[in-house]
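S.,

Sequence below, as promised.
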Amino acid sequence: MLRIRRFEERCVELYSAAKIRGFVHLYIGEEAVAVGVNEVLTPEDAVVSTYREHGHALARGITAEAVMAEMYGKVTGCSGGRGGSMHLFDASRRFYGGSAIVAGGLPLAAGLALAGRMRGQNHVTCCFFGDGAFAEGEFHETANLAALWNLPLLLACENNLYAMGTALAREHAQTDLAMRAASYGMPAWAVDGMDVEAVEQAARRAVEGIRAGSGPHFLELRTYRFRAHSMYDPDRYRDKAEIEQWKVRDPINRLTDRMREDGRPVDEELEQIEQRITEEIDHAVEAAEKAPEEPVENLLRHVTSARQGR
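The prediction came back faster than expected:
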């Protein structure tokens, strides 16, 4: 969780310095979700993400260097510098990208889950998406087919209460998303998304159920983003007091407080972790600064196919 937090804080600095361009959606405050869920997935499982994906990618094991280079648009980035912040991708980690389209990853995740089952693999596909995606037709089509076909799919809904600038209660007549998901005939329940241990336990229960053949599961991970929707967002749609109230439940602080209560030497441990992460991110930034950009002659690479005989 600290790696994700510090990585994104550095991204804020780099964006302000115009080193990183384009849209950037920060995950600060939601780290417990990415870490807790990824903790129970195996390297053979698949992950599909959203445009707010830095935390998912880092928790999945993609290096800070590869992600930072992608943020810079360099060829050493995990998507070759062509995707940027919203389109991280690494097939070797079975991380099948973020998507700039709200709910765009859901049908893809259903297809990956179906492919795995048809191949006889006992793998789980996990799809992260937000409460805004729950309102899209892609969610309901995916949930229906996943339940109908008994697909090994974990639907991980990150409910941070705001779809861009629209509050949950202004978009959904029924705000209990887990209850609505259960109407498709799949196990579904809500989880405290600000508690990494609660997330891990819920995800483990869901993944074990999926591997046992009980079909798709839905988790409503109730969390909160401390920053605006994106770096372009003035964040005028929510009260500052509300943000401060949620910061009291900061997932990193909650875990460290619990560790102190258990008598662990957490402060010494944190100091070592912070130093390690600082060095890691410093190296990632330095490598991104030095990495080459894709040459102009590659402009049509991955865009058009070569003609036969050429």
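The radius of gyration is 20 Å.

Coffee later?
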